[in-house]
């Protein structure tokens, strides 16, 4: 058993007052990080009678806390640090000893030197008040190693907030599963100890005591590289050129400059120049190509220290990457594709090099491949989509004297833009031209633009293109425009008459392959060849500001009937106010808003703006004062449901990053379906709300930034060399309640493979409108410190260990420049849509029931009161499942972001360690999954099995009762909807006016949406529970718990899931 440091209270007090100089403890209650050169506190430094303070040793010498700075530095990846490429490197590091903080259950913390002994059979520590033979743990007694703060001692509030989760780990040992809780100085050091101990646990009994056996596991990697090299001389030696060529064959991601640098370092270390022998090359290859963070991950899943078997890979894919129903054939396919050695392919083993290549492949990209194709319903009204729109599409630079070009249209259309702007003016020889009127921008012919649009309109998307025409031409040139449009586009042009029987605009699917014209239209009754129309688009707005005209003063111009007849479902009209639009605007009419006008409406009446955009299209364009073609934040008006949010495509930067990131979520087709709450007729939504959004389950996004690869210097840097001091920022964009930003520490002098190892957590209240932006910047660069970025919609993120390929400022992929992260998504509350079967965050015991709001009319309120009990029942069903799930993970000793498969894998490994006297079998009993155990089980396993049964019982309870509660909720909603048509009359009869009337309508819509939303959440929760049962079965199969009963289990689970 480990050191037992129980003392009487008087002995503990004495130790606090007069500790031994080398027996130092700290009681962490600071949020600061330890400086590298922290001196040890001892009794020698105390004044007479002074008590050693119970505070963090990470305070300054004068007792003051370190102040936070914007620029913080991580020393976990310094170039001078030991490189970890093999299991033996980890074990050697452990044998040299590490100063770790030992944490006791009473939150006391002791600095100790921990060492793995020479024959790798014991872990020892010093100093200690116990006899030396008791201050040790036998490696043979170690059951498992836990990463993070998973034990009671490490979860203690005095500990949890003071140290990064990545620095904490626990050694579980002995028959009673005792815990040795430790905190390392850096995440790297914790990873080395966890990896080394895992290697010792995973290897057989003989290998535990044999360093040679562990070293021998590297044989596959020691030999295969030379299969890629032809030794014509037969000398077995390689010159620098041969080293470079062979290294690049083995790993194309290695930069040639780095190979040359490492060869020179090797020559300096050995004291002479010359060619490398095979051993030197292998050592060099391992040092350069091994990414320690991936090696640490491999060892956690490998049955053997340095390769993953197909069984190991299957567990990794299902438990970590969230893949379902993975087969052995799929695992063999991955090995065949990515493993470089012939021996590994033959044996079905994936070594560190193949595993690294796999994690860098498209299969492990952060972007969900399902979204690379059109994956949304495209049959809804045009007004129910966000539509990619360009402003002043013809410009390549600024708005004053920049060049105009047809290329601007081609670029925009190829990026998926579906609404382009044509600013049309009179040109010479009755040929209309396009340019930014009354400026020095160059001019291009209208005809050439129409021809380019015809050729490229559907290069990237088959869905409709809208031409937003700003018409400043005389009647004759308008007729020329109409002729070009009809003759060049031909059948591509949508010329049909408006169907008066419709109430909404037809869908993108309906207009597939068509071009729509947005512009002014003469009265249907007009038989004249022309007529006057008001001019209220962007040009009129600019003129009004220049001439200081009154708001009501409208400029009019003549419109040719030929051009008017080309416009059908996108007729421009003037916006007065929302009330007038509600009563007079036709569904085929759309309003244009300047950026400032739209923002005023978004701030003053966001609910009305959302409701307006449920029925009508709205176009928003940048303020005329943006002469540099800069852009506004599109989220500000997307949050209000505006569809045609036009940006200057020619200007790269943050706003275009958000724009491009947003429109990748539906196959880059240029159309993205709005959230249901922004489409449904009776639904209350305000982007500025701080309340829970009815029917939407908030999500918790967990991001661990692990490492980066091949970061270049910022563009334009005049500094010599390519060394950077990178750090990563993570920004959440969406509704205001979701917006947040975090950053990592800076890793100095390492742009090649900086290790960050930092975790962050974000609450996302409306996932459908959220964007996540990762940016890498150089902390050492003065000026624009931007290195690269990647922006992705929240809904497109894959969970697990993922790489993202960073993009330059102009949106181009930077060669070999990647960021390695771990993503987990959990629900804040019960129910909701789970991402890849992940678990939920544990929350307060007190339940937060969704309630009905008072409309202020007794008869209507009585109707909604009936819903109170089913709302509570639904919440209880969902929450009970999530609480049971959280308890199961906690008892298993896993973090809140773990999933069911990881829990079952851990239980299976715990029972396997016990040997043949204990067995664990997955069976179905009484229509419920069971883990049936035999033998003398440790208490920790018994508790976990009991918790498993509680969780499955809650899942079954929800599955059995969800439909009944759902029907009750829907019945209440239908009863409430019966009041909808008469709501205005009933309110008037009850003398509700002004604000009370508006509040009544708002609360009525809230109640209807809550009932529908909560009913939907319950059905989603039922699907989640069915998925949990499926995961249990898959985990049991992959861990060998169903070998004898597999067919029986499969039929049982198929029956339970209704498949």
Write up this protein.
Mean pLDDT is 85; it is low at 1-81, 204-209, 829-845 and 1054-1059. A hairpin with a 5-residue loop joins strand 30 and strand 31 (813-827). Helix 17 runs parallel beside helix 18 (446-456) and helix 30 (939-977) packs antiparallel against helix 32. With 1059 residues, the chain is α+β, with helices and mostly antiparallel strands. It is globular. It has 33 helices and 33 strands. Helix content is 36%, strand content 19%. Strands 14-13-12-15-16-19-20-21-22-11-23 form an eleven-stranded mixed β-sheet. Strands 1, 2, 3, 4, 5, 6, 7 and 8 form an eight-stranded antiparallel β-sheet that branches. A four-stranded antiparallel β-sheet has the order 27-24-31-30, with no helix packed on it.
Main structural class: alpha+beta
Spans with pLDDT under 50 lasting ≥5 residues? 1-81, 204-209, 829-845, 1054-1059
Task: Tell how many strands the DSSP assignment holds.
Answer: 33
Could you tell me the strand content as a percent range? 15-25%
